[in-house]
Write a structure and sequence with these properties.
Elements (H helix, E strand, L loop, with lengths): L3 E6 L8 E7 L2 E7 L12 H4 L1 H6 L8 E4 L2 E4 L2 H19 L4 E5 L7 H14 L4 E3 L6 H11 L7 E2 L6 E5 L3 H4 L9 H10 L3 E5 L5 H4 L3 E3 L6 H14 L12 E2 L1 H7 L5 H8 L3 H13 L3 E5 L1 H4 L4 H14 L9 E2 L22 E5 L6 E3 L8 H6 L8 E5 L3 H4 L3 H9 L3 E5 L12 E3 L20 E4 L15 H12 L8 H17 L3 H7 L5 H12 L15 H6 L6 E5 L15 E2 L3 H12 L9 E3 L15 H4 L6 E4 L1 H7 L6 E6 L2 E9 L7 E3 L14 H5 L26 E2 L1 E4 L7
Parallel strand pairs: 6-7, 6-17, 9-10, 9-13, 10-11, 12-22, 17-18, 18-19, 23-27, 24-26
Antiparallel strand pairs: 1-2, 2-3, 4-5, 4-19, 8-14, 15-16, 20-21, 23-28, 25-26, 25-29
Helix pairs in contact: 3-18, 4-18, 5-14, 9-11, 9-12, 9-14, 11-12, 18-19, 19-20
Bound molecules: ligand MGD (2 copies), iron/sulfur cluster and molybdenum atom.
């Protein structure tokens, strides 16, 4: 039988590479980069190749599991839904809607079925207890961008194709392949920038892979970015370097920012940052003095107690150096579908708000419809009205990915009922009473709902399924609709497609009012996420307007471009004021809550550095907590090591390769020491997502070399107060040698 070639966007990380997949007789033969892909041009990383391992992994779940007498047993879909119907609605009937909670995780961002249908489950549940990995990750960036530009996903990205200076703070795209910035082959693009005379500068407590190719790298004390950024702004004002450039007439609040950063002279912050005042001034001058420049900051600056402030000041720097919304600066993508910043009236909007409700136990405010995920354990543990008794998890493994995992694990055990939509029986789903598996990514269609809003270049790409799904196994959007129906007491017998027709009709009515029938007619023959996508593309900024603009995009056209690598919609274009959705129609440079929170940083200027702090790390061959079971990625040296500077190692009598105990308060983990000059003295780096040594999981390969769970060490009570984001770095620890042998 002859080989067939398929083209599929990789769903594993934000780079969204186009892959070329060879299939013979239903078997995967090879996976490589798709040279013609308009976004990634043939680039891929080892994880993309490992999609074959994922597809073939014997531990990946292919049937539902029901826990009976403490043991997970295979079940049919009918049995699984029946069990959920038997147990979940009575809990809601007895204790109310807030007795349920949902948590959704990172892979859902890469699944159109999950991302577009999860909100339907949330609406059906009607609970305020909605949690996600966003509060372990980018919520500060979304909050800052939302307050400044008016929508949660209006994120400014470096226009790397044209910039001459890129300042990267707390991100390591050479390992992560970019985040809140879809930029496949960052390294190639950075090298091209350097080849045309541009400079890459990295600020990170570790000399990372990205720092290693940079023109300059500066260590910073973990958690001190807000001080550095405020001092750079201070320098701009003090040295009369502020210029607003193209967005000048669209900015509110310059004077307020000037006043707010007054306490943060470079001299005042130098100790706190671990950076000389002269370096801070020089960075500000370089940024102001380079015509095409951008500041990009990511998870290192978000997962800290000043996450929102740091994210805000990054864009304040972009604005005040005249680099926002200009070629070569920090620009906004214009996605073909699903972007709120292309919907409705251009240039003005409702803006965003937070705190529409609060977490019952901690009082933490709602942000973007969610509560901080680090509140989940206490919401389950604490008795009272609205105590969480039933939980649905969707593509998430917070026992490993969220701080104080062991506490959460215990809390999950105390639930009355738990359902997980997940493809593995892992550290979190082992607590579930019912597990409902999704398909292999290669058995699903794909269109990135979020990432074209964050891409280095505008585009539209669609992937059909590479392989047919196993007979009888629903797609995840269908499973979500069935769950929603159960919660709404509609029973288990309703057909998912009929439920979908009903939902779509409602969505069309909400979005298109009097034209709803025409939209339903125009999209007939489609269903599920495909139909949602066609509607979004056709009504989007490049769309055919359901026939009004025949040259415009629709699903059929995007589908037809699959083998030629998708549709290129060009380089980033200036979008202000059209993109803005703030009530003022301006960029809000000085949101009141941010200015107020900056007082916290003023009070904290003198805090001495702890002797030792821990930060996180990513590795190209790993992906948060769930890809350690794939042979291609698992081979090679142990990646879950604690990097320690030689000075610290000598001081603490730690030797390379030996086991050490890391301790923070009452929490501790054991990890293998790796002595490394990459580290800033006083800082230790340990990756997250490890710790596969818990019982009752089904991850045979991962369990052979489990690694240490960094999140068993971290405190679930530490949050950025504005965004609710967890603090994952800069935590004070102690470290000492420990006798013992490490598996693997
Ligand atoms: N200390 C520390 N902790 C961190 C971080 C850090 O830097 N330091 N990073 C944080 C960040 S940025 C993030 S995003 C979170 C991630 O945390 P989570 O969102 O919880 O993601 P993972 O831990 O990767 O778990 C993903 C889950 O999805 C399942 N899964 C994979 N594919 C599918 C699918 O197609 N369908 C379904 N239904 N399930 C699927 C996997 O089996 C696994 O259970 O971790 C955070 N945790
Ligand atoms: N291979 C791989 N790729 C991934 C993932 C993965 O697990 N593996 N996860 C994906 C996910 S969910 C995300 S969110 C992205 C994240 O993508 P990135 O933001 O690029 O994440 P990291 O590689 O963890 O880089 C964060 C950097 O911040 C530094 N840092 C830590 N604390 C501080 C601090 O206080 N200040 C400063 N300035 N720097 C600090 C760390 O040393 C690290 O180098 O990666 C995605 N891509
Ligand atoms: S960088 Fe790797 S994991 Fe990320 S999308 Fe590309 S191939 Fe997939
Ligand atoms: Mo993330």
């Amino acid at each position: 039988m002859s080989d067939t070639i398929h083209h599929r966007i990789c769903p594993l990380c934000e780079a969204c590479c186009g892959l070329e997949i060879k299939v013979r007789s239903g078997q995967l033969i090879s996976i490589r980069g798709h040279e013609q892909d308009v976004l990634s041009k043939g680039y891929l990383c080892p994880k993309g190749v490992a999609l074959k391992d994922l597809h073939e992994d014997a531990d990946r779940l292919r049937t539902p599991l029901i826990k009976r007498n403490g043991v997970h047993q295979s079940a049919t879909w009918d049995e699984a839904f029946a069990e959920i119907e038997r147990r979940l609605p009575p809990i809601i009937a007895a204790h109310g809607r807030n007795a349920t909670a949902v948590v959704v995780g990172n892979p859902s961002a890469h699944k159109i079925g999950l991302l577009s249908y999860f909100p339907k489950l949330v609406r059906a549940l009607g609970t305020q207890n909605v949690f996600s990995a966003s509060t372990l990750d980018q919520m500060p960036k979304q909050l800052a961008s939302g307050m400044m530009f008016g929508h949660w996903l209006s994120i400014a990205l470096p226009d790397i194709a044209r910039t001459q200076l890129l300042l990267v703070i707390g991100a390591n795209p050479l390992a992560s392949n970019g985040s809140m910035w879809t930029v496949p082959d960052f390294k190639g693009k950075a090298r091209a920038m350097q080849a045309r005379g541009g400079k890459l500068i990295v600020i990170d407590p570790r000399r990372t892979e990205t720092a290693a190719i940079a023109d300059a790298h500066h260590f910073i004390r973990p958690g001190a970015d807000v001080f550095l950024l405020a001092a750079m702004l201070h320098t701009l004002f003090a040295e009369n370097l502020v210029r607003l450039g193209a967005v000048e007439i669209w900015v509110n609040g310059v004077d307020e920012v000037c006043a707010a950063v007054a306490p943060f002279s470079p001299e005042a912050v130098t100790e706190r940052c671990g950076l000389p005042a002269s370096t801070i001034r020089e960075l500000a001058r370089q940024l102001a003095g380079t015509e095409r420049a951008a500041v990009y900051a990511r998870i290192g600056t978000c997962t800290q107690e000043y996450g929102t402030l740091a994210s805000w000041l990054v864009d304040a720097l972009n604005v005040l150096t005249g680099h926002l919304d200009v070629p070569g600066g920090a620009m906004f993508a214009k996605a073909a579908a699903f972007a709120a910043n292309t919907a409705g009236r251009a240039g003005v909007g409702k803006g965003i708000s937070t705190g529409r409700h609060h977490a019952r136990v901690s009082g933490a405010p709602e942000v973007f419809g969610e509560l901080p995920i680090t509140c989940l354990a206490e919401e389950i543990e604490t008795p009272g009205d609205d105590q969480v008794r039933a939980l649905i998890t969707v593509a998430t493994n917070p026992v490993l990915s969220s701080p104080n995992g062991p506490r959460l694990s215990q809390a999950l055990d105390s639930l009355d009922f738990m359902v997980s939509l997940d493809i593995y029986l892992n550290e979190t789903t082992r607590h579930a009473d019912v597990i409902l598996p999704g398909l292999s990514p290669l058995e699903e269609m794909h269109y990135d709902l979020a990432f074209p809003q964050l891409s280095w270049r505008n585009h539209a790409r669609y992937s059909p399924p590479v392989l047919p799904p196993p007979p009888g196994q629903p797609e995840e959007w269908q499973t979500l609709l069935k769950l929603a129906a159960i919660v709404k007491n509609k029973g288990t017998q309703l057909d998912a497609n009929a439920l979908d027709d009903e939902e779509f009709a409602q969505d069309a009515q909400r979005l298109f009012g009097a034209h709803a029938d025409a939209v339903i007619h125009a999209t007939q023959g489609l269903r599920g996420p495909q139909r949602v996508l066609d509607m979004a593309l056709r009504s989007g900024p490049y769309g055919d307007g359901f026939g009004l603009k025949p040259e415009g995009l629709n699903l059929a056209k995007v589908m037809a471009s699959n083998s030629s690598g998708g549709i290129d919609l060009g380089a980033l274009q200036p979008r202000i004021p059209e993109l803005l959705r703030t009530p003022s129609g301006k960029i809000e440079l000085a949101p009141l809550s941010f200015i107020a929170d900056l007082q916290r940083a003023v009070a904290d200027l003198q805090r001495p550095a702890p002797d030792l702090m821990v930060i996180g790390r990513r590795d190209l061959r790993s992906n948060n907590s769930w890809m350690h079971n794939l042979p291609l990625l698992a081979k090679g040296p142990m990646r879950c090591t604690a990097l320690v500077h030689p000075i610290d190692a000598a001081r603490l009598q730690l030797s390379d390769g030996a086991l050490a105990t890391l301790e923070a308060g009452a929490r501790q983990v054991q990890a293998q020491v790796q002595i490394s000059e990459q580290m800033m003295p006083g800082v230790v780096s340990l990756p997250h997502g490890w710790g596969h040594d818990l019982p009752d999981t089904r991850l045979a390969l991962a369990a052979q070399r489990p690694g240490a769970n960094l999140n068993a060490l971290l405190d679930d009570q530490l949050r950025d107060p504005l965004s609710g984001n967890a603090v994952l770095g800069g935590i004070a620890i102690t470290m000492r040698p420990c006798s013992g042998v490490l598996a693997g």
